[in-house]
Amino acid sequence: MAAAAAAAAVGGPQPPQPELLAPGLAVDKAATAAHLKAALSRPDNRAGAEELQALLERVLSAERPLTAAADGEEAAAAGGGGGPGAAEEEALEWCKCLLAGGGGYEEFCAAVRAYDPAALCGLVWTANFVAYRCRTCGISPCMSLCAECFHQGDHTGHDFNMFRSQAGGACDCGDSNVMRESGFCKRHQIKSSSNIPCVPKDLLMMSEFVLPRFIFCLIQYLREGYNEPAADVPSEKDLNKVLQLLEPQISFLEDLTKMGGAMRSVLTQVLTNQQNYKDLTSGLGENACAKKSHEKYLIALKSSGLTYPEDKLVYGIQEQSAGTSTLAVQGFAGATGTLGQLDSSDEEDQDGSQGLGKRKRVKLSSSTKDQSIMDVLKHKSFLEELLFWTIKYEFPQKMVTFLLNMLPDQEYKVAFTKTFVQHYAFIMKTLKKSHESDTMSNRIVHISVQLFSNEELARQVTEECQLLDIMVTVLLYMMESCLIKSELQDEENSLHVVVNCGEALLKNNTYWPLVSDFINILSHQSVAKRFLEDHGLLVTWMNFVSFFQGMNLNKRELNEHVEFESQTYYAAFAAELEACAQPMWGLLSHCKVRETQEYTRNVVRYCLEALQDWFDAINFVDEPAPNQVTFHLPLHRYYAMFLSKAVKCQELDLDSVLPDQEMLMKLMIHPLQIQASLAEIHSNMWVRNGLQIKGQAMTYVQSHFCNSMIDPDIYLLQVCASRLDPDYFISSVFERFKVVDLLTMASQHQNTVLDAEHERSMLEGALTFLVILLSLRLHLGMSDDEILRAEMVAQLCMNDRTHSSLLDLIPENPNPKSGIIPGSYSFESVLSAVADFKAPVFEPGGSMQQGMYTPKAEVWDQEFDPVMVILRTVYRRDVQSAMDRYTAFLKQSGKFPGNPWPPYKKRTPLHPSYKGLMRLLHCKTLHIVLFTLLYKILMDHQNLSEHVLCMVLYLIELGLENSAEEESDEEASVCGPERCHDSWFPGSNLVSNMRHFINYVRVRVPETAPEVKRDSLASTSSDSLSSLQNSGTAQVFSLVAERRKKFQEIINRSSSEANQVVRPKTSSKWSAPGSAPQLTTAILEIKESILSLLIKLHHKLSGKQNSYYPPWLDDIEILIQPEIPKYNHGDGITAVERILLKAALQSRMNKRIIEEICRKVTPPVPPKKITAAEKKTLDKEERRQKARERQQKLLAEFASRQKSFMETAMDVDSPENDIPMEITTAEPQVSEAVYDCVICGQSGPSSEDRPTGLVVLLQASSVLGQCRDNIDPKKLPITEEEQIYPWDTCAAVHDVRLSLLQRYFKDSSCLLAVSIGWEGGVYVQTCGHTLHIDCHKSYMESLRNDQVLQGFSVDKGEFTCPLCRQFANSVLPCFPGSNVESNLWQRPTNKSIQDLIKEVEELQGRPGAFPSETNLSKEMESVMKDIKNTTQKKYRDYSKTPGSPDNDFLFMYSVARTNLELELIHRGGNLCSGGASTAGKRSCLNQLFHVLALHMRLYSIDSEFNPWRKLTQLVEEENSQQGNEEQQPEVPVLYHDVTSLLLIQILMMPQPLRKDHFTCIVKVLFTLLYTQALVALSVKCNEEDRSAWKHTGALKKNTSDAEKSYEVLLSFVISELSKGKLYHEEGTQECAMVSPVAWSPESMEKYLQDFCLPFLRITSLLQHHLFGEDLPSCQEEEEFSVLSSCLGLLPTFYQTEHPFISASCLDWPVPAFDIISQWCLEINSFTERHAEQGKALLIQESRWKLPHLLQLPENYNTIFQYYHRKTCSVCTKVPKDPAVCLVCGTFVCLKGLCCKQQSYCECVLHSQNCGAGTGIFLLINASVIIIIRGHRFCLWGSVYLDAHGEEDRDLRRGKPLYICKERYKVLEQQWISHTFDHINKRWGPHYNGL
């Protein structure tokens, strides 16, 4: 076809490219346009018009480009020129010029926009757009607003949420049909049209001429490009190709729509003008090309199964008219073989053999109306044909957007809606065939929701275009294509057809868009009324619903398990809910008042007709087929729900809408069958059908389905029960539940239909069902608020719930307009009435809690309703959970100590229409069952449980609560003859029957039963018994016989029959009488009444004889005020007492009889003789019991062990000495530290050849680098202005300092002057457990071979501690050493400081050789390697010469620094708290120091360059000045970082270190530090201050303690440094540093102390770890003095009365002034050349604040709005998953391939650069925080919660979220303490893909 088109196109007049600019036309487009515009403006403009037409004809010729498109690339190449796109572009340029009439196109656009009366927003968006919905402002539930309109409007306090659009949508702002005007935004608050000027005629004149041609051109393209797919498979590629080519054209149209109202109305004229369309597209005329395209159009129509009706005009091609109905309905319902070919002739179907679904077929094929709906399409305007192609091309997004953008134009809206309706059937056909039905569904709904949400529009279309007829017919047709024969009941002869749930149509929810439109229009009252009044429509609709009646039939597998578990039930439940229930709720919402009675009668009438048809079709009489069940009975449910509404809201008389008894009996069968099947499923009788049957049972009661499924079913059964004979109903129930045989007095029986193991649970099921049936009032008189309250209480009793899960669990009417909206006023008020809010709490190491609601105490006390709980539980365990919580409440409140029974709850009164329901409680059948069960329980027959007893008592109590008042009447009315024959009880009132004694009962028992032997003896010995038997007083009863009898009665209704004697007793079994010959009849002596059984039961339950004593004998008041709280809660004993009290209250006779029974002292029950077999089972029980107790004991012991371990391992403050690695110093006889290995369990010292190690986790950390020097934390940027610059972070400052030093000084010396590790430093932490290193190796081996998926990578050396399961990745060897030795080292010696200095120097000078190759040394080497590999190379190598040993040296002492600094931060940044804080307990610094020292000593520093000498000796002048010229100098001592010097000095010493050496080093370093402080102070102050101080200090220089006076020292420093150029540059920038505050002695002292404190803190920590001394606690202001005395800097006799002066700690090793001047000299020689840098290096910022994460805004929306549309700075796209780093505020693309570098995605990369492998990111679109740690990641949770304390992951609910400060604090704490790995459990590898 493509070739043909191409040929035709070539043949046609095809103007070549150059001809466009033919001489006739001016080459300049603009000039041509202006000329034409002028010509057209003349009054007689025919010539102009023709000229324009000719031009357009040429420009917009649709031939050339699409030839190329159709013929593929070669044609395109042949097309020459600019390829296929050039001509289109040229054409578009022409159009733009012509529209603008010669002016500029941009100016033209602006001009048109000025005339836009923008009353509507109408912004159209596609899927995934973020929009808002406000329920407070919305009239239609589909209302939505774009973000801009939402934020511009005022919605404070409204019920709104943000959502991600599923299918796309449009903004409704300004449309008062859909939303209230109060919600409009500022732009769209109604502008009156008066102030918009009228559009000048000539502005849009050209558009009116040009646009029809342009649109026609577009349509021609679409016709050309569409090729009918070969085998019903549209070649997606071709279609998409065509669409890509047309992209610019459609975009051009879309731009036009955005010009505003003026342009839209022109477009509307063009699109809807029928004349234009006729002229251009008729296909007549000489243009071959046009003919060709018309033919293609007709072919496309035909292939779509549509006809083109003949018109009066003779069209080019003859078509059959629709009048002759010989057309076959194409490719439609006829397609499925099961239905046979649909013949659409007007006569009825003749062939009777094909009866299947005949009724339906006749209905469909007989009416020509449907024919026209389904098959005829006639296009009269551009709009109609455009929509046709839009559908044909499966709704391309661009076209959809264009069509929707036009909607603000009212005229267009109506026209388009009508066109859409006209194409509805065609849409359905295309949808069914489509491969992309999901996308297509979304696009369809995107359009239809805009049209049908508007009530006015929907009403208009309903009236003018038969919208309802079309929708129902289309739905019916759609479902007809997948019908199969129903197998329910009578498989062979069934005439019923149902949908096949396995078909794609149902499985993929393809019907969804059509159903959703239908539900949408039914929500409008005017439309729904038309539907409810139209009898034909109702009949069709019931027909449609009956397709779903009985679908997805389950047959019970009796032999083997099904091979394949079908999952069709999902489709079935979804279909019933969406296609049947939701339209039903929609209709119900309009039947709320008396005036609508007629509608209900209509629905009920047609519903009953459909049901009758259904019963006939499946050949149903009275017995359902065994072992099959369907959960889908939509017709029953329609009937039930309309009945309920009729009685509740419309005051209809129930009997007037009920059918006859026979129909009621049929109606009750299937719902009852479902209830019995539920019990069977829960009894595991359907286990061979697989899990899916359980899934169905759960879905049936699940919160989204229950009020459309189980609730109507139970209500229908209640209605039937209230109108049918109670004995019939009760016996039916027990028969359906298959427990009839169990209800016998005999101790043994045979059940022909049920296995023994299922009997108990089926009996429980039957009784529970009766209790629910009799006590549920959902449709029998409860108000909506009461229902809501009951539902809420039931859900809260099962578990505490979050607000959102409650909303989800409480069934609301699926129809959104039904009143109870989630979150509505009533919901919130009921919630606050019944529940307390528990705010989210935090267990420090635990999971994060959400805010929960928990029932109030009074709810447990008065409103806990077990019946409602049982009805609403999806999982049986929830019932148990509710009972456990109830028990706990009673214990806690002291109301009842034991195990309570479910409480009996008083019910709301019944609606008068349903009073008959209570007759069930007063029928003999039920009383006989209750009597039998009580007797059996008392006699301990098998298969009875406490649950059975509980339900029996519940039923008795219900009967007493609802008893008929007049007792005597009742008894008189019983007719004589029947009474003596078979009635166990005299009447039917429970109150009187309770006291009736039953003496003998005749039972049928197996011959083996014990009763048989006893009775035969008795009858021979005692004459009395035989005489009794003859007179027929022994009671016998058969449920089934009763039921059959009643059924006959109901069917025949003849009085003669009713009085007949019961049928022969042998028919008491279903099976033929001969099938169980071993049954025999026996007579039991009973002599009990219900009352006496109850009293005996009381004795049995309490385990005491005569335990029951009537309470009213003591306190007569009890009878007067019956509500006694003590009976409200309790166990079985309480229940029995409560019932007896109620019985006594109801009648004096009962009261007397109870008293009598209690007077007869009941004889003790004789002990049962135990047979050998029974003894065996008892022994077994006992043994089991003992075993259980032993197990409990073991478990308890284990638990306590575990607890004690947890206390030691976790951060629980427990006594400090419980960790084995803590070395006790008290006992000198212990020579070595002893370690326990947690793998082999042995204890012992760590030795050279079998070292022990600490389990440690090494991780790189940049937390230190994040410290800043200002107090207020940085905020996360939420506008373009706010940016975060990392200049002031600790890491940045240190980096700058090191690079400055490296510029001017010798590299090796620079690397000793600072520490690194602020970024990417290695932090070592341990859980405190130790293991042998060889044990650890074998442990790792076993982990490697373990196939289980672990959350860590064993190859990287990761493992979990074998004892506490804490994450770890290395083992730190413990240095063998003895305790006593360390004690010796600590004895103070009285050597002078000078001697000690010498010793230190000597010790440092000794070269440290590595000890011999022992296991220990190997391990030390390997752990050092681990430490190095923990961080990236860039964080280790700072030297200018790569790989120099100085690098390693620097790195090693920096590791020590990092760990000390971090511990300081964990302690809060100071040491005021003192003590061995929790971190100390698990510290491994001691071991770490040994490893580091061992390695540091391998690099001996050349003694020339050892800073120690510069600190302690005066060096000769000349030597320091030498050779300065040719090489870089060393770093001056005053530029050294003192803490780094400390670590270097200590790690250079042989370990273990002596305490006095340590103190000596500290003293020496303190002098340097103090001098640095003075120098910094002198630089900070201004010239006047300096000269003043210089002067005052100089005066005191000769006093005795001059060396310890800061004034003297300061003045000396100033005078020394004045010799250099340091102070000279007093420029302007200097003033910036000057503090305006004058320096007082106090402020100077404080400055000096603050300068020295960080050093003192680190030193004290170090001392604490090396020598195990405790840190003293103190106030903040005395921290300096306490630490200095603790370090031995302060002389011990120092008095603290007068203000403390820091200088008193100085202890100069050499004369102070000499050494200071030597140090200052170095500075001066440097500042000669570089004064600026010299000054910068002196001022060190030493007061870092603690690190913090960025501060987040209060409301999440501020983050979301800024970031979710923000473009990424790297790839400049808007990321799909944007994320932001909470440490530094960087914006990154999560998982974005756009920003990937060397296989690392951006987040992972950033985590390495920003946090050395740890990243904390906030995912903008999910509000969740994700943690990246190395190669693993985990979802941490959210720090933003809604008003109910809940997270909203993925922003699904879209409610406003607020920061939860506690959670954020927890996150920050975990970051600072490096405990992400330990606390968060769910880690997974990210493979660098985040």
Please give the structural blueprint.
Layout: H1 2-11, H2 29-41, H3 46-59, H4 64-71, H5 73-78, H6 83-100, H7 105-113, E1 124-125, E2 130-134, E3 145-146, H8 147-152, E4 160-164, E5 169-170, H9 205-225, H10 236-257, H11 261-272, H12 274-281, H13 288-303, H14 358-366, H15 368-375, H16 382-392, H17 397-405, H18 410-422, H19 424-433, H20 437-452, H21 455-465, H22 467-480, E6 483-485, E7 497-499, H23 504-507, H24 512-522, H25 525-533, H26 535-546, E8 554-555, H27 568-588, H28 597-617, E9 628-629, H29 634-648, H30 661-682, H31 691-701, H32 710-723, H33 726-736, H34 756-775, H35 784-798, H36 803-809, H37 825-834, E10 835-838, E11 852-855, H38 857-863, H39 866-872, H40 876-893, H41 924-938, H42 946-961, H43 967-973, H44 976-982, H45 990-993, E12 998-1006, H46 1010-1021, H47 1023-1030, H48 1039-1052, H49 1055-1058, E13 1079-1088, H50 1090-1102, H51 1117-1120, H52 1132-1146, H53 1148-1159, H54 1172-1209, E14 1235-1236, E15 1243-1244, E16 1252-1261, H55 1290-1304, H56 1307-1313, E17 1321-1332, H57 1333-1345, E18 1359-1360, E19 1367-1368, E20 1370-1373, H58 1379-1386, H59 1393-1405, H60 1415-1430, ...
Antiparallel strand pairs: 1-5, 2-3, 2-4, 6-7, 8-9, 10-11, 12-13, 14-15, 16-17, 16-20, 18-19, 21-22, 21-23, 23-24, 24-25, 25-28, 26-27
Helix pairs in contact: 1-4, 2-3, 2-6, 3-9, 4-6, 6-7, 6-9, 6-10, 9-10, 9-11, 9-16, 10-17, 17-20, 19-20, 19-22, 20-24, 22-24, 22-26, 24-27, 26-28, 27-29, 28-29, 29-32, 30-32, 30-34, 33-48, 34-42, 35-37, 35-39, 41-42, 41-50, 42-52, 46-47, 50-52, 52-53, 59-67, 60-63, 61-63, 61-66, 66-67, ...
